[in-house]
Amino acid sequence: xxxxxxxxxxxxxxxxxxxxxxxxxxxxxxxxxxxxxxxxxxxxxxxxxxxxxxxxxxxxxxxxxxxxxxxxxxxxxxxxxxxxxxxxxxxxxxxxxxxxxxxxxxxxxxxxxxxxxxxxxxxxxxxxxxxxxxxxxxxxxxxxxxxxxxxxxxxxxxxxxxxxxxxxxxxxxxxxxxxxxxxxxxxxxxxxxxxxxxxxxxxxxx
Length: 206
Known about the structure:
Elements: H1 8-24, H2 36-49, H3 53-66, H4 75-89, H5 93-105, H6 118-128, H7 132-141, H8 155-171, H9 177-180
Helix pairs in contact: 1-2, 2-3, 2-4, 3-4, 4-5, 5-6, 6-7, 6-8, 7-8
């Protein structure tokens, strides 16, 4: 909720405190409390929003090292989405797409609506690659149009459509693709303009 409201620092503090509590209350006989790996993935997301890719990679590594026993059901897909973001930020868009494909295969939902679907993040990477036709096909398949009535449930998908339309203009020689694909992701509307932006700001899926 704090992240949704744009309170990045508060969200980081909440996750860090949760990690401390988990470490202090690990059940007897367990190496680590279940869910710890998920919290590390959450912190990786905070680092990614701050454009701290080294910290992002370190949190994801620590989460992966803990293994499945420290994870909740959603962590496998969230970890892959986080790694896809990291690969995309480094310019490795092909690997990012492979990771997103894996994330969709292992996706497990919970009681919350899926407001940042993996397929929308994949469309952003596709557009960043310059494959506007494929990205436009995604929008058509999901019945997205610029004049749709907007809703919270589909906000991420409509912002993705905006990314695609901007990228389409740049491919036609009307701008810079890197600039068009920068920023503007899910919770970013709540962050101030000083937040670092990268050419492959894709928005999580998580």
